[in-house]
Amino acid sequence: MMSNRWTIALSGAIFMMTLGTIYSWSLFAQPLLACFGWSSTTVTWTFALAIFSLGTGAVVGGRWQDKVGPRKVALTGVLLWSLGNLLAGLGTAHLGAGWL
Question: Does residue 76 have a pLDDT over 80?
Answer without folding.
Answer: yes
